[in-house]
Every structure is written in structure tokens, then in C-alpha cells.
Amino acid sequence: MKGLAQSKAVLQKADLLPGAVCAGLFLFSNQKREKRMSALLWIGDDILAEQYLLEMKNVHKRFPGVHALKGVSLELRAGEVHALLGENGAGKSTLIKVLGGIYEKDEGEILIDGKKVEIKNVEQARNAGVSIIHQELVLVPYLSVAENIFLGRELRKKGGFIDRSAMIRETQRALDEFGLKLSPNAMIADLNIAQQQMVEIVKAVSFNARIIVMDEPTSSLSDKEVDALFENVRKLTARKIGIIYISHRMSELQEVADRVTVMRDGEYIATKEVAVTGNDELVALMVGRQLDNYYTRTFNDCKEPLLEVKNLSTAKIHDVSFTLRKGEILGFAGLVGAGRSETMQAVFGLDKVISGSVKLNGRELAGKNAESILASGISLVPEDRKNEGIFPGMTISFNMTLKVLKEFIRGIRVNNSKEKEIVEKYFQDLSVKAPGTETLIGSLSGGNQQKVVIGSWLASRPRVLILDEPTRGIDVGSKSEIYAIMNELAKNGVSIIMVSSELPEILNMSDRIIIMRGGSISGVLDRSEATQEKIMQHAVNI
Predict the structure, then answer these.
(1) Residue 259 has what pLDDT?
(2) Distance of CA 352 to CAs 40, 312, 497, Å?
(3) Does 457 score more than 80 pLDDT?
(4) pLDDT value at position 23?
(5) Range ranked top by mean pLDDT from 7-16, 133-142, 214-223
(6) Are strands 329-334 and 267-273 parallel, antiparallel or unpaired?
(7) CA dihedral in degrees (328, 329, 334, 336; nearest 10)?
């Protein structure tokens, strides 16, 4: 309330009553509103504003042939969570890399506490109090928590030797402050993703960071782990640390963010107060249009069994049975670690089957390898797109045809026209946004990479398409397009299994929903009876 006190003092000097301030002051009675509104008060035509912690003004960044940032501005208050939204390719990552010193801006200004700063490298960013927690964590797996936190700036004794005791002591103090039940001596490789993420937060704070960027921090977390993350975010903002929060999960904004800035095509679009802005408005700002049919689904009367899994067990799943019908989208829900992905790996021949049966049109597939199962008509789009789905240094054409080489290669002869025909079909059908099919896939946005991955599996003309987290880490516009692709495939008789941690897409896209818990099926719901509450009851055994 410091800003409010300062404003009252100005009012008193001006012989104005506090009531002369706009009627919106009643909002100060709400604690969250108080934090948001205290930075801006109106007196007549004048504005009294608290100084921003961070200001990025009119920032430009160009790469050969690409104007990635076109005069983008962003303002962050101390103690604020400021969400940054935009489709893949909107310029969010480029803006953050400029702030973090990975890229050097071409034009514009960066101010911290009202003072202009130059950030040309990561060290300068760190010295300015900026820390970035990337989506792909950068911890060293076979070093301890303490060693990672002090990596490159180890505490030393007078003789120059590393003071491990001091590092462990300081790490324990920081862990205790955040309520983290971790040992400073624990190996990073032995921690789960949520714990590693918390270590990254502790590391950022240990640099005395006042501005922390979190890039898709919840993409691999369970609901319980997300709650723990948000609790630590609140601890950071209570210390007046400003947080820039990047996420494609719209549902998180109301929970964690105060304001949101939307970018599109490398440009600043708008900044909105989260509490008074609906998701539909934000989506329209992001994509430049209304998405009237965000979830595209034409439900079919699916009765003909196609894939039958009975009593399937591996080292990770137990006695799993289900049936997939022709033209059906069968959703798999459950918490992280419930066994959903492991079930799909077993069906596709990637995990050794201990017992049970997998039949496609009556033909037994259990125990066969992935190559045989792919040839039989089952395709699997993996959860980890970057590490398991693409070769980032190769072209769209290479990635799109990798699974159907036999169709255009005979001995040493390559049928280039056939290869081009395959690539062009799925490039066009899936509306991949790229300069051409010879573009490196690693240069594409996440949504377009996912389209190429899906296209590469569709090229094998599957009867069953398994999609493991098909929309993770991609923007709302690309999500809508992928939903439309799924719907069209189902209408044409392709059967789809969709594993997803996002309950809205499970509920809106599935004919039936299977819920897993502890490596086994805990419930099956028809779309007509399914709700988020019922799914969670089965997922957590309530």
C-alpha cells in the first residue's frame, strides 16, 4: 500500500479529499485488487503511478529475413505475476531471450527500477537481477542440488578450496525457506520434474534475482505439483519479486496471474487485467479472430470393435483391458505417472509384454516389435515431441517421410516424384505454416512441428492413431486446428486413442474416457456422463 500512502500525501498537499479520487478506490478492500490498483490512481487528468520494476520499450529484433520483434513493449510491477500469451511464433521466446541476454536487441530500451540498462549477454542479465527458468530445465543431472545451485560460483575457503559445507548449509537454508523437503546432497537425476523445477526457482533466487521468467512451468506437472508451484510463486511475489509467466494453459491465468500481455506475429497487441478479462477475449487477441468452434467434434455412432486389449501387463502396468471402436476417439485420463503412456508403449510394442493380449481386427499383436505393429496399422505420436518425434536438424520433407521410405525407395533408386507427392499431401492437408517442405523442422513453431509429426504417422495410413499429449506446449490456434484434424480422421473411420492431461480437451473430444490410476484402469465414462469431478474421483480414488 506504499503507492496509496504516497498518493494520499499528494492529495493532502493539493488540499483534495481522498474522495476526489475515482470511485474505483473501493476495490482496495480486496487484497488482490489492492495490489493491482495501488500502482495507478487518477487525480483529475493526472496519473500517479508507482515506478515499474521492469520496462521493455519499443524492442526490435531482426534475424536474416525475419523481423521477429516489431516494437514490443512490456511492463512488470514488483510483486506481480505478468502472463505473456501468444501463439507459437508470436515472439514471446525472442522477447524473453532479449531480456535474458541470449539475444541482443536491435532497437528499444530496457529499464529496471526506472534506470536504463544494457543487456548484451547472460551475465549482464544476471547482474541486472534477471533469471530465466526455461521449459527444458538446464540442471546438471549427476551433480547434487547444492552443486547445481552454486555451479560456476562455488563458495570457497581462504585457501581457494571449495567450501562444500557452506554450500550445503546455504542450500538447506534456501530449501527450508520454500518449504522444500529435499536434501542438498540429493542428485538431480533422482528428483522428479516438479522437484527439479523447484531447484531452478531456488537457484534463481540465490542469484538475488528480482525478475524471474517461468517458461511453461507446468507442462510436465500433476495437479498437486502445480498447486505446490503456485504456492511458491506466491512466496516469491510476497518478496516483491516480479514474475513473467509464459503458458499455453488458459485455465492457469485466473489462478496465478495479475495481468496478461498478448503478442501476435512479433507485435504487442494488448495488456489486460486478468480478473476482468475472459478467455474468449484473450484467445481472439492471440489469434486475431474468434474461435467459434474451438473444439471441433462430430460424434459418430461407434459400435464396431477394432482394437481389443485384454489383461495387458508389463513391468509398469497391470491387467489393463479396453476396446477401441472404428471411428472412435477414446480418451485416456489420469494423473502423471498413472500408466497412460506406458499402456500405449506396450500396445505399440515398445515395452515388453509380460501377459495379456492386443488384437487388431482379431490379429494378435502382443509381443511383436514396433515395426511389425506399425506395418499392421497402428501409429503412435509420442508425448516427447522434441526428443522422440523429430530430427530438428533435418527438413520437413525428411521428417514427414521417415516412416514410409519403402514407398519411394527401391534398392538404390529413389522415386523423387512419389516422395514429393507424399510430403505435399500432408503439408497441405495439415496446413503446415512454413516457407516450404525443405525448411528445417527445428525452425518451426511447436504447433507446426506437431503437425509434421502427425503427418509423418498419417503417411503410413494407420487404422489406429495413438496421440500421446497431442497439444502439449502448443498455442490455442494450433490446438484448434489439431482438434479439427482429429475430428476429420474419426469421420473417415480412423480410430484414435488420445492421452491427455488437459481435462477440457478430454471431455470435449472423446466418445468415451478411460481413467487410469497406479498402472491400472480405475474407471470408464461415456461422454454423456463424464465431468471433471467424476474423472478426478476415479483418478485419485475418492
Answers:
(1) 96
(2) 62, 11, 20
(3) yes
(4) 37
(5) 133-142
(6) unpaired
(7) 130
- Here the cell at position 242 is 516480479
CA–CA dist 333, 351 (Å, integer): 20
Residue with cell 469431478: 533
Q: Transcribe 163-222 into DSSP letters.
A: -HHHHHHHHHHHHHHTT----TT-BGGGS-HHHHHHHHHHHHHHTT-SEEEEESTTTT--
Cell of 327: 471411428
CA distance 41 to 51: 13
pLDDT at 393: 85
Q: Are 532 and 507 in contact (CB under 8 A)?
A: yes
Q: Cβ distance 327 to 212 under 8 Å?
A: no
Q: How far apart are CA 400 and CA 417, in angstroms?
A: 15
| Structural contact between residues 471 and 383, judged by C-beta atoms closer than 8 angstroms | no
Q: Grid coordinates standing for 47?
A: 496519473
C-alpha dist (Å) from residue 369 to 347, 391, 402, 521: 10, 22, 18, 24
Q: Which long-range CB contacts under 8 A does 250-255 form with residues at least 24 apart?
A: 250/279, 250/282, 250/283, 250/476, 251/504, 252/218, 252/226, 253/83, 253/279, 253/282, 255/230
For residue 69, what are the contacts with CB-CB under 8 A and spacing of at least 6?
59, 60, 61, 91, 94, 95, 98, 105, 266
Report strand pairing: 242-246 vs 211-215. Answer: parallel
What string of DSSP letters covers 221-269?
--HHHHHHHHHHHHHHHHTT-EEEEE-S-GGGHHHH-SEEEEEETTEEE
- Planar angle of CA 532, 538, 539, nearest 5 degrees: 80
User: How do residues 52-80 score in pLDDT, each as one tens digit?
Assistant: 999 999 999 998 777 889 999 999 999 99
Q: Which contiguous run of DSSP H or E holds residue 6?
A: helix 2-13
Instruction: Give pLDDT tens digits for 298-311.
Output: 887 778 899 999 99
pLDDT value at position 451? 86
Please, what are the domains in the chain? 2-44 (no CATH), 54-287 (3.40.50.300), 291-377+466-475+499-542 (3.40.50.300), 384-461 (no CATH)
**Which amino acid is it at 309?**
V
Residue 255 grid coordinates: 489462478
Roughly how many angstroms between the first and final C-alpha of the chain, as a whole number? 43
Residue 128 confidence (pLDDT): 94
CB atoms within 10 A of CB 312: 22
Greatest mean pLDDT among 128-137, 177-186, 508-517 lies in 508-517
